[in-house]
Amino acid sequence: MSVGMALDEIFPGGTFPANCPSRVVLDHVTSKWGVLVLVALERRTLRWGELRRAVEGISEKMLAQTLKTFEADGLVVREALPVIPPHVEYSLTPLGAELVTLLRPLLLWTLENAETMLGRPLNRP
Amino acid sequence: MSVGMALDEIFPGGTFPANCPSRVVLDHVTSKWGVLVLVALERRTLRWGELRRAVEGISEKMLAQTLKTFEADGLVVREALPVIPPHVEYSLTPLGAELVTLLRPLLLWTLENAETMLGRPLNRP
DNA sequence: CAGAATCCTATACGATACTG
DNA sequence: CAGTATCGTATAGGATTCTG
């Protein structure tokens, strides 16, 4: 199965089955904060606080939940340094890095087209 | 702004601002049924009923809501033939087709990796 | 600093019934 | 056939407080 493959080679008739496990993974990735958290980690390892500031508006609860899901999925690794005060770093696994390769263009596309699509100006830093 | 561009060239400091309009677009695309509906339309125009069957498990309410959002966003066009019984076709706009170019690889990636990530077998047709 | 635990609410979503 | 309207619920998500 290659990435260039047509979808109906995989799903004959072009039907996406309801009980396909990939739905779960898709739900994780497309969860409210999923894309932003993963892409935020693309450039480098980030600490909890950095990540929280990088993804503006995310609550602590959602950051924790999103990270745990991705950790369980094998997309993100958590490394806690045994120091006081605590120092915890999050980074992408190779699998996560591979996924972000697909997510960054998507994020960039929304940036390029949001203004046109919504008919109002972009808020740029 | 090109697709290959690094994100911190756009968001210096690697911070994703909370009030950026692209968040809205991202929410539409990553809505529960967004990716599946858009990718289902990649190959050809589909009628309401075909679309409903293609995306297994979607309710009529959510199909309607998802399609309306995408229509307003300029990603999908609705064409109603003035016949009885009604015959309505949905297809991608050029903008929508461009977006699906980015979404199909994402969907394929989840298909390839879901089994490994979740530790259980894929349900294939 | 990096969370966990609680509580609370909006709304996303589904099921059902109805219609031109 | 292609929807809309209504209702009900689950749960995603936020705000706040607490802690090692």
UniProtKB/TrEMBL annotation, chains A, B:
Domain HTH hxlR-type, first and last residues per copy: 20-118
Any one GO MF annotation of this record: DNA binding
Pfam families in UniProt: HxlR (PF01638)
Keywords for the protein's UniProt record, in alphabetical order: DNA-binding, Transcription, Transcription regulation
InterPro entries: HTH_HxlR, WH-like_DNA-bd_sf, WH_DNA-bd_sf
PANTHER family assigned: HTH-TYPE TRANSCRIPTIONAL REGULATOR YODB, TRANSCRIPTIONAL REGULATOR, MARR FAMILY
Name assigned to this protein: DNA-binding HxlR family transcriptional regulator
Organism: Kineosporia succinea
